[in-house]
């Protein structure tokens, strides 16, 4: 069992626009470590590398330089972006159905975190201070999960079409709760008692007992926002512009790179992949 972190507090982010990937990464890390702009920069770098590889391969088909496979204009990020963000903290993202994750399928309570994905929505199930919580950003507070219910819940999610990823590595132990620089505007720190009180209040008016009905209700809530949360409003136009600009910059940078530089870059990338 891991030691108490962040003074026993839980870090939770409530859904903002289509930024569930940001919320998911931060609740895995238990702190506001990333903003949407951080993930957009990672997405831009991934797009640049992908275009370089395709140009180097000399294929007949090249991706549209104004399109991204890793971030949409409304802020939805790919699994590759989440992987890169968590790699910064030496955390590995592993599909739960892979052979290496077989022990987690049998005894999920022995792990520390899972990432769940369905139709552009991401959320995290995380063990904090020895207890499991569902940190879905569509919930007002993290919902406690018993160790006995955890396995059944993961099975139910997979049966409902969710993709589950295991997260392994050395998780950050502390985040400076009081630091204003460590806030992205979406998160809140809650004691387990406060989280339980908020969850019970919401359950009494919105939800029934946990189980498959809860998953169906979540799907209904999720789909009413068009499959990924609320639409971006005018306050998010800067973020949309930043994504568009990053895509343009990435495309221009690849276009202007000499062939010999591309050769060197891809050789280095290949060597890095071999080492990994």
Automatic annotation (TrEMBL):
EC number(s) on file: 3.4.19.12
Gene3D superfamilies, per database record: 3.90.70.40, S15/NS1, RNA-binding (1.10.287.10)
SMART domains: Josephin (SM01246)
Catalytic activities: Thiol-dependent hydrolysis of ester, thioester, amide, peptide and isopeptide bonds formed by the C-terminal Gly of ubiquitin (a 76-residue protein attached to proteins as an intracellular targeting signal)
Molecular function as annotated in GO: cysteine-type deubiquitinase activity
Biological-process GO terms, alphabetical: protein deubiquitination; proteolysis
Top-level taxon in the UniProt lineage: Eukaryota
Pfam family name, one: Josephin
Active site positions: 20, 121, 136
Gene Ontology, cellular component aspect: nucleus
Bilayer-crossing regions: none
Top-level EC class: hydrolase
Josephin domain boundaries: 7-182
UniProt-annotated location(s): Nucleus
Keywords, comma-separated and alphabetical: Hydrolase, Nucleus, Protease, Thiol protease, Transcription, Transcription regulation, Ubl conjugation pathway
Name of this protein: ubiquitinyl hydrolase 1
Annotated source species: Coffea canephora (Robusta coffee)
């Amino acid at each position: 069992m891991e030691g108490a972190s962040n003074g026993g507090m839980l870090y939770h982010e409530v859904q903002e626009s289509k930024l569930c990937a940001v919320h998911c990464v931060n609740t895995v890390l238990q702190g506001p470590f990333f903003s949407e702009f951080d993930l957009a920069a990672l997405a831009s770098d991934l797009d640049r590398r992908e275009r370089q590889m395709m140009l180097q391969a000399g294929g007949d088909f090249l991706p549209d330089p104004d399109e991204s496979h890793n971030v949409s204009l409304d802020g939805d990020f790919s699994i590759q972006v989440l992987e890169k963000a968590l790699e910064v903290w030496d955390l590995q993202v592993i599909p739960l159905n892979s052979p290496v994750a077989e022990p987690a399928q049998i005894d999920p309570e022995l792990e520390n975190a899972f990432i769940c994905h369905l139709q552009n929505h991401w959320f995290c199930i995380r063990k904090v201070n020895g207890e499991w919580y569902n940190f879905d950003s569509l919930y007002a507070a993290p919902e406690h999960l018993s160790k006995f219910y955890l396995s059944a819940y993961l099975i139910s999610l997979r049966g409902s079409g969710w993709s589950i990823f295991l997260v392994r590595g050395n998780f950050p132990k502390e985040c400076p709760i009081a630091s204003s620089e460590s806030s992205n505007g979406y998160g809140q720190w809650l004691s387990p008692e406060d989280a339980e009180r908020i969850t019970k209040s919401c359950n009494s008016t919105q939800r029934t007992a946990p189980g498959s009905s809860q998953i169906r209700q979540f799907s209904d809530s999720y789909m009413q926002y068009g499959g990924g949360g609320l639409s971006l409003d005018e306050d998010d136009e800067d973020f949309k512009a930043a994504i568009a600009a990053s895509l343009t910059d990435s495309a221009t940078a690849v276009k202007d790179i000499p062939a010999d530089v591309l050769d060197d870059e891809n050789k280095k990338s290949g060597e890095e992949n071999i080492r990994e």
